[in-house]
Amino acid sequence: MTVRIEPVVSRRHRADFRDVPTILHGSDPRYIPELDLNLKALLDRGRNPFWKRAEAQEWVAYRSGEPVGRIGACRDELLMERAPGTGTIGFLASTDDEEVATRLFETGYAWLRERGCDRARGPLNYCIHDTGGLLVEGFDTRPTVDTTWNPAYYVKLWEQAGWTGVKDLLGLAGQLQHGGPERGRKFADRARRKGFSARPVDFSCFDQEIDLVCDLYNSAWNDNWGHVPISREHFAYKAKDMKAVLDPDLVRIAEFEGKPVGFFLGLPDLNVAIRRSRGRMLPLGWWRLLRAKHNCERVRVITLGVIPGFRQRGVEALLLSDSYDSWGNRYTWTEASWVLADNAAMLNGLALYNLFPYKRWRLLEREI
To answer: What confidence score (pLDDT) does residue 203 get?
Structure first.
């Protein structure tokens, strides 16, 4: 039967775009649906500050009137400045059917070419600060919060479409112990003796703290592959949606002589509750998430960064150890992701805390 590609322009299209991954993969116990409100917030052209600098289009693939795939394409002005001619492809979901995937890819390429792009990077939904990455190792375990999972056949679909890998991203995991391993504590104590300290985020002045963390984030990640600066407004928009599920014990800011020099952010892994609510926040999704927050034993470390000039001085160990001390025995397992596969310093530092690679995602590119 003929595959028909339709742009997302109506309420029905938006519902199908949201539901395609669940239609295709919902019976797989490893699959976790996207939170519907998170997806809506990301794609909200009126509220999300990202769209002040970017434009995008989404499509749904139909066969015999039934949705069988989806894709999105985005042109981001800041990415174009750092990687001229590059747009992004994301949100791909497809049956194990080369025709469906090819039609979706070609639709996205054509849209990007019309807007001056000659190269595509993906999967990114839609920028480096959101979800993305093609899972290429670690298919047998469920994803943690805000990470992606795909069946193994997706690798074939991307490679058959002419995409090649440009950067691998790792997820490291391990069991936790109170205060962290002895080796890590020694590095943390050494940093304290040198005048470094760590503190929690002050939620009573959350907006000011978010501005501070945004500046740290842009400085610490500025030289990382693929980094695109994020505005304070965009950062605050993302933080506002995250605030309800933040655990104060999982956020730390490192300082030296009163100057912020690094920060640590972890999130309770709420994916079990997200799966039970099928990604829907209403009517009971919020209650399930908030309840899971207080009973969760798993953590995803999202960011651990130190600004230039203060690295390799034990600050990373200080942030991890201070956070470990504050949460006690409530959390027993953690994943740190993403970590660039060629970031030897970070990989060695996390190994001190018995965190080792168990998953691998890949970002790919191709000329269009």
So the answer is: 86
Say yes or no: 165 and 275 in one domain.
Answer: no
Q: Does residue 152 sit in the same domain as residue 226?
A: no
Residue of 331, 265, 251 whose CA lies nearest to 296: 331
Contacts of 323 by beta carbon, 8 Å cutoff, 6+ apart:
198, 249, 250, 251, 252, 264, 266
Give the SS3 label for residue 48: coil
Q: Same domain, yes or no, for 258 and 285? A: yes
| DSSP strand pairing (86-94 vs 259-268) | unpaired
Q: How many CB atoms lie within 10 A of CB 54?
A: 20
Q: Which residues of the chain have pLDDT under 50?
A: 282, 284, 287
pTM, entire model: 0.93
- Tokens standing for 280? 């829907």
Q: How far is CA 82 from CA 26, 224, 273, 280, 363, in A?
A: 37, 12, 38, 36, 16
Give the residue among 174, 190, 171 at the shortest CA–CA distance from 352. Answer: 174
Residue 122 and residue 167 in contact, taking contact as beta carbons nearer than 8 Å: no
Q: Which two tokens stand for residue 208?
A: 């000011």
User: In this predicted structure, what is the pLDDT of residue 179?
Assistant: 57
On whether both 28 and 130 belong to a single domain, the answer is yes
Q: What's the pLDDT score for residue 277?
A: 61
How buried is residue 312: exposed, middle or buried, by Cβ count under 10 Å (0-12/13-18/19+)?
A: exposed
- Rounded to 10°, the helix 344-351/315-327 angle is 40
- What is the separation of C-alpha 297 from the centre of its chain, rounded to a whole number of angstroms? 20
CA–CA separation, 111 vs 105, rounded Å? 10
Q: Given the DSSP bridges, would you call strands 119-122 and 134-137 parallel, antiparallel or unpaired?
A: unpaired
